Queue: 2 jobs
Job 1
Amino acid sequence: MNEEILRLFMIGFIIVFLWVVLFWKFFKKITLIQKDFEIENQAAYKRIKRLQCVNLWILSLYVLMIVLFVFTPKWYKVFLPIDALNNPAINMMGLLILKISLVWVVVVQLQLDAAIFKYSRKIDELSSMELVFFFERLLIKGLLLMFIGMFVTLSNIIGLLLCCAAFWYYYKKKNNMRRLQV
């Protein structure tokens, strides 16, 4: 894959991904997805706060990495690229993972909207809230999949460390939740 095409794809991807993950409410309005009700207002639900601060920091570092990769390749060297992994086949695999993560996040956002709507209507409140938490975890898994895709596409040491940190935090949080349930 040509380096210029990869740069164009990466900046386009991160804009769309951020729009879908962080600004879903506005994305729905522009794309005419479920425009008939405002579930965030009905349920007083804050979508961004549920993504966990650590994941938002890691996401912002990946955004910085992409901006440097696209606009200032000299500064991108700060992230310690792994030249052996800069291969068109590996890059294509990373792009495929990124596309899958984007589809994953869109589907989860739609399902999360349905669960929040059900919760806001007080329909079987406890199981609805459990469903909301389930879809929030799926959204975080989509974010983790995006981190893997970023590392595979832009293979560098800092990306690997960020990816490992995100997985470590996810499993630490998951184990803490299990201990609280027991």
Job 2
Amino acid sequence: MTLAFQRPGVIAHLPIREGDTVTADALVAKLNDAVARADLEIAKAEAATDIQVRVAQKEAETAQAEYQAVLNANKLTPGTFPEPDVLRLRLEAQRTELLVELKEHEYRIAQLTRDQAEAELTTYAVHAPFAALVTRTLKSAGEAVTQGEAVAELVSTRRVRVDGYIDLADAWRVRPGDRVEVRIAAEQGLSLARQPISGKLRFVDVSVQTLRSVIRVWAEVDNEDGSLRDGLTAEMTIFPKSQPKPGASHVGQDPGPAAAVSASGM
């Protein structure tokens, strides 16, 4: 997997080297984010308090109380306050009510701006999506990068994809989800060849390679000890669920050796 930044910038920190193993979510590279962090602090401060909302609410309460007092006075003694004064106080009460709505809206925008600043800050760093081996570093600290430009390449060594081909005649017997066993060819390491490695078939192609009358398949197998490596030749045996008995069905020839496949890191 090739990793890249979601934004342009200058790399401030690149803590990995080729050959390093990294855990899931480990920092791979980081851009200079001083400005983004300052923007976030400002956004946090603006979103930290609703004092403007509370001030507007008090002003609205005051205006409404003054307006109501004038109405009550004119009700007891008509003409105590002239109509223009009554109208002015009524409009002031309405204005302050709208001001409360405006301040509540601004407070909500401040919170969203803070959330946006937090989200943007995450784009200044690249983290490993899974535990993996660093196979290539393509940039160095201090270099400028563009959005989407590759920074490093990782390969997961805990699960391995095994690619191969089956005869067209066997295609109807296998389905994604079937159990598989993979054995490394003996000439590549007797210690690896002794123990089969279990996994599951994940893909059966719908297209036929007509020159050879074969169909491409691939399976995913566990590789916790890291013994499987990219480029190894192996034999993969598929156990179709449709078989009435759990006996192995060697893919590619029946009977005979299993089809040769190559193991590659996921």
